Amino acid sequence: MVPPAGPGVFTVKPSGPGTFKLVVSGHTFTSRSDVEKYLAYRAARLTAEQGGEWFTLNEDRGQGETAEPPPARDLEGPRFSFRMKYFRPVWRFKTNASPAWTRWSPFSGAPFFSADPRTITEFEVSAEIVVRKGPMDDADPLAFEAHALSDLLVNQVSPPK
Amino acid sequence: MIKRALTVSCIAVVAASLAQGAAPWVRGYVVAFYDPAFRYGGRADYSRGAEIEPGVDCPHGSTVHFAVPAQVAKTFSLIPWRTPQEIEALANPPADGLDRNVAGVYFHTWRAASAYRGYTPDIETYINPFAAEDPGQPEVTSRIGEGFNLDGKIKPNDFVSPDGEKGIDNQLYRAWGCDAPWRGDNGNGTLVLRSNDKMLEGLYTVVIRVSGNNDPMNDDNATLEIGYSPDQIMKDASGKVGVDYSYRILAGEQYTKLKARVKDGVVETEQSDIHMPQIAWFYNQLRDAFLGQGKIRVVPNSDGTAAGLVGGYRDFRDVYAQNVFTQSGGVQGVREHEDHVALYYALRRHADGMFNAKTGRYDGISSAYRMKLVPAFVVDPDKPMRIPVRESDTGRRKAFDDTAAAMTKAVDTLVPQEVPPGSGELTAVDGVEIGRGGVALPARDRRGYGGNRGADDKAKGASAKQDPR
Lengths: 161, 469
Known about the structure:
The structure holds two protein chains of two kinds. Chain A is of the alpha+beta class. Helix content of chain A is 16%, strand content 28%. Chain A has one domain. In chain A, strands 1, 2, 3, 4, 5, 6 and 7 form a seven-stranded antiparallel sheet that branches. In chain A, helix 1 (32-49) crosses helix 2. Chain A is globular. Chain B has an eight-stranded antiparallel beta barrel with strand order 1-2-3-5-6-8-9-11, surrounded by four helices. Helices cover 23% and strands 22% of the residues of chain B. Chain B folds into two domains: 7-47 and 49-56 and 137-388, no CATH class; 69-136 and 393-459, no CATH class. In chain B, helix 4 packs across helix 8. The chains are: A alpha+beta, B alpha+beta. Chains A and B meet through helix 2 of A and helix 9 of B.
């Protein structure tokens, strides 16, 4: 069972038809993977709560963030219920030294957090998803089957502080 | 007991019924070939006869799980606690000539590592497949498939039958149709061959009896029975399944009696739950292939044989257990180039029947199985009897049941389960057993069902007790 999140740790806002912006916020975290898995779990649960069966991730690519190319559709390769390696949310954070938000994108090619994580005072991890019904478009690498993803993550995640 | 039936009198009955147009009639068949209705669609003029061509349904061919180091490295890279160095070493075990194991350098390393791919190193994967990432499964992309329209609807993911019927529900084919051991032209996939060999060698027998009181070519009130027979399939002098032998049918847990309609000789049953023997290649797999909302069709051929088709919704956990636990997931996966984690995800992804209101998900997957039927006399036993139990295999049967129960509990509760004592997942093969974390270890005892065990023991000069199979 996933413990409930504290106030303000998880927020979700509609951003279009069937589209939602999910944000996980906190002050300390153990690893990038732990926080991103928690966000993925919440995306899967939200999809199920909305009566959806799967969701797609809208990648948040800023200008020039092209070091990691968008994954191509694969019509004839293996089918997946989800591919965790393509669940790539965007981070922003504040440090002791800089109270302004600094963005980190998995598509920029920059290593994760050049700052010492111990100096992080606040962070946000965000993802925009589109909730979908019916047969999954499993040729889309950015498609995630809600129940399968939730099953994998339910015993692994907890909300950050 | 096999006995030649009273052929002459039965022919007389049939002849009389044809003459009169309305009289009791009976037709019997023994199943001579039994495989999942996976439509191959390969070219008839394919010239590389010994090879299985890609086929139109799986344009990129069949599964290559655990076939080559590069693919294995990709699979093991999904294990979150493995380092890149470990993955490289596991995918490319040293072939320095010092390992004299008859199974080769890859088999034990890969089967051991494949059995522990969960999010922590102590979660056994084949009992807890939900706890590992989906490694991906090639799936059927074509739209033509055999089976029945089980739900009466025409949906986007349904197949069109080779005869043009729309709305065919056979998502097992969609999910598993490109799985290497079940593919091939006219059933030459390795597990199709193996399971049919075992059936013909006497592992189990399935029979069908159709009866009515009108014209055997057109009868609105016919009856079809399908079930287990305790009598071994009889072959003729050429090794083919013999025609017109007699078989008993047991009205027990693997038996169903259905109302049927016969039109122009084609028998089609009502839609109802079906119990019948499932495909097996080991004794511990012999059990009921429950098909919810099932149907059976029998189409006669001009030579007296017939083509059978059985469809219905199967519990995806039964389908999974049937394929993985007769030996162990690692043995089956590396030997047959299957990945049961991928197969598990594919089953769940395409499950489309037996809605579970408690979980809000489907527990059943629409399925169809083909059968080649040879004429036979199907008779009731002299006195009621149950499916025989072979005492020597009760231990392995219990191990199978316990392992399947642990898997079912795991996927239903999402609480990882331990490997039950005696499970095939713990059984040593070629003197190698699997330790926690997917480590290949020397076996602590001589217990094992290993495929190469006899040869291995011989090579070491040990007295090998022969596998009872």
